[in-house]
Amino acid sequence: MDSMTFVLFGATGDLAKRKIYPALFNLYLNQKLPKSFSVIGVGREQLSDVELRSRVTDSLYTFSRHLINDKSKKEEFIKKFQYCQLDVTNTEGYKKLLEHVQQNEKDHNIAENRMFYLSVAPEFFEVIALNIKKSGLGSTDGWKRLIIEKPFGHDLKSAQELNEKLSKSFEEEEIYRIDHYLGKPMVQNLEALTFANPVLQSLWNNRFIANVQITASEIVGVEERAGYYDKAGAIRDMVQNHMLQLVMMTSMHLPKQISESGIRNEKRKVMKSLRTLNRDTVGVHVVRGQYGPGEINEKFVPSYREEPGVEASSQTDTFIAARLWIDNSFWDGVPFYIRTGKRMMEKETKIVIEFKNPLKDSYTSEMEKVKPNLLTININPNEGVSLQLNSKNPTNGEMEPIKVDFAASKQDVPEAYELLLFDALYGDSTFFAHWDEVELSWRWVEPILEAFKENRVPLHSYSAGSMGPDAAHQLLEEDGFKWW
Ligand code: NAD
Questions:
Q1: CB distance 283 to ligand 1 below 6 Å
Q2: In degrees to the nearest 10, what's the CA dihedral of 470, 476, 482, 484?
Q3: One of 66, 100, 108, 242 is an active-site residue; which one?
Q4: For position 367, what pLDDT does the model report?
Q5: Which in 246, 299, 384, 450 has the greatest CB count within 10 A?
Q6: 66 counts as catalytic
Q7: Angle between helices 21-29 and 71-78 in degrees, nearest 10
Q8: Beta bridge partners of 215
Q9: What pLDDT, in 10s, does the model give residues 239-285?
Q10: Is residue 240 within a helix (H) or strand (E), and if so which, with residue range?
Q11: Quick one: which of 83, 84, 171, 81 has its CA closest to 129?
Q12: Rounded CA separation 335/401 (Å)
C-alpha cells in the first residue's frame, strides 16, 4: 500500500492525544506508514490546521515512546495533519468532509484508501458509520476500513443492535474492533510461545496443566470515569472483552493453518466450549467486590462509594474473580481463574500456568520443598516470560525453586496501539475482536449481569491496596490452589 487517508473522528480527544498520535508518529519514525498519507482530524471544536498540529506536537512531546531527537522528522510528520470541523450528528456536514478528503487525495496523489477511526463516545458510532455511507465517503476505488474502540454495546442486545447498524455501512472484514489487550506484545507473543515451541505445545493440555490464572490488577481507582464506569463495572469494562480475550488467546489450539481465519476459528471454538453459567452456578463460580477505603503507597484513598460521581449506595463491581471451565478434550478438568480489579495492591497483567506434579507421591521427605512448575507470562507493565523449575542449590544441597527469565527492554517494546494500527493499515485483523467473539462473550457474561442486577451474588468489600476480597482467595482454596 503506497497511500491512504486516515480520518480521525475525535481528533481533539484524550485517546487521540495519549495513544493515537504517538502511535502514528512511532510508526512513521520506523518507516511503517505508507509513503504518502494524510491525517484528517475531525472534531466539534473550531480549530485551524496550525492549532491541530500544535496539539499533536504537544502530544508527541508528552507521550511518544521515541524521543524527538530529529525535529525535522517531527515537522515532516505534523505537516500531514489537517483539521475539519464537523458535528458528527449533522448529516449535511459530511459533504464538506468528503470534499476535503477528495481534494486532499487529488492534491497529494493519494489513492482512495480510507481509514476511519472513531475515537468518540460509542453513542456516535452508528450515526458516523451511517453518514460515511450516505455522504459517499465510503464509496472508494480503494479500500475503506473502520476502527472502533470499546465499549461495544452494554449487553448482548445492544451489542447486536450496534453490529446490525454498523454492518449496513461496513462489511465485517472492514471493521476493526480494538481490544488493546490484543495489541500487547506479550499477548501477541502467546501464539509464538505455544505454537513455535514443541516443548510447550506438547504440555498445553489437561494432562500436564493443573490450572491457569489470569490477573489484570490496577492500582488506580475510578478516576474521572465514574459516569461510564458506575454503569459498566469490572464485568463490562474488563471481563466481557479483555479477560475473555486473554482466556481465548491462552487456551486456543494450534490451527491447521496459522492464519487470520485459522486463529479466529480456534478462538470461536474456545468460546463455544466455555461452560455456560446459570442462576444456580453464577454464585458458585463468580466473586464480585467493591473497594472500600485503604492505603496505597502509604497514602490513604477513599472507598469507591466516596469517589466523585459515584452514588453512596452504588452496587457496582470494581473487582471480579471467576472460575471458568472449557469443556473440550484439551481442557476438561482444568480450571481457568480470572481476576481483575481497581485499587489493588499492584498494577499487573499476567498469565500463570501451573503445571501438575505427577511425581509428588514418589518424593522423599527432603523433597517436600518442591514447588509446582510455573510458566508466567508478564504482559504489563513489564513484558517477559519466566519458568519456575526446581533445582538443588549447589552450595547447600537444598531443593529450591529457580527461575529461568526473559524480560524485554522497556524502551524497545512498541505500544499496543502501534502494533494494532499497523495491522489495521495493512488489513490484518488477527489481533482484533471479531463480531463472533464479541457476541459469544456477551452471551457468556449475560447470566452474570442478570445475577448482579437481581443481587443474587454477594458484593464483597475489599480494602483498597489489597488483592481483592477473601472470597476470591477461597475460590481457589476450594480447589486446593492459591493465586500466584
Ligand atoms: P474525549 O471525550 O476525550 O474525546 C471525544 C472527542 O469526540 C473529542 O474530540 C470531541 O470533539 C469529539 N466529539 C464529541 N462530540 C462530538 C460531536 N457531536 N461531533 C464531533 N465530534 C464530537 O473521549 P476519549 O477519552 O478520547 O474517548 C474516545 C473513545 O475511546 C470513547 O469511545 C472511549 O470509550 C474510548 N476509549 C478511550 C480510552 C482513553 O484512554 N481515553 C481508552 C479506551 C477506550
A1: no
A2: -90
A3: 242
A4: 65
A5: 246
A6: no
A7: 120
A8: 339, 350
A9: 999 999 999 999 998 888 888 999 999 999 999 999 999 988 999 99
A10: none
A11: 171
A12: 24
Residue where the block lists cell 476470591: 472
Any ligand 1 atom below 6 A from CB of 252 = no
Alpha helices per DSSP H over 241-335: 244-251, 260-273, 282-285
Q: Whose CA is closest to atom 2 on ligand 1?
A: 13
- Least Cα distance to 291 among 314, 322, 318, 320 occurs for 318
For the purposes of burial, counting CB atoms within 10 Å of the CB of 438, is it exposed (0-12), middle (13-18) or buried (19 or more)? buried
Q: Are the CB atoms for 377 and 190 separated by under 8 Å?
A: yes
Distance CA 21, CA 295 (A): 35
**How many A from CA of 117 to the centre of ligand 1?**
11
Residues 7-50: pLDDT tens digits? 999 999 999 999 999 999 999 999 999 999 999 999 999 999 99
| Alpha-carbon gap, residue 304 to 317, rounded angstroms | 10
62-71, 139-148, 432-441: least confidently modelled range: 62-71
pLDDT band for position 300 (cuts 50, 70, 90): very high
In tens, the pLDDT along 310-360 reads: 999 999 999 999 999 999 999 999 999 999 999 999 999 999 999 998 777
Interacting residues of 207 by C-beta distance below 8 A, sequence separation 6+:
356
Residue at 293: amino acid letter = P
Q: Report the atom number in ligand 1 closest to the C-alpha of 151.
A: 34
Q: Tell me if 225 CB under 6 Å of ligand 1.
A: no
From the list 93, 12, 15, 113, the residue with the least C-alpha distance to 53 is: 12
Residue 9 Cα, ligand 1 centroid: separation in angstroms?
Answer: 8
Annotated binding site: 10-17, 44, 87-88, 150, 180, 184, 218, 237, 342, 347
Q: Is the CB of 89 under 6 A from ligand 1?
A: yes
Helix, strand, or coil (residue 390)? strand
pLDDT band at residue 192 under the 50/70/90 scheme: confident
Confidence of residue 413 (pLDDT cuts 50, 70, 90): confident
Q: Best of 14, 90, 417 to mutate for ligand 1, by most ligand atoms within 8 A of CB?
A: 14
392: Cα separation from own chain's centroid: 40
Taking the model in full, what pTM does it have?
Answer: 0.95
The rounded distance, in Å, linking the Cα atoms of 294 and 411 is 33
The mean pLDDT of 366-370, rounded to a whole number, is 70
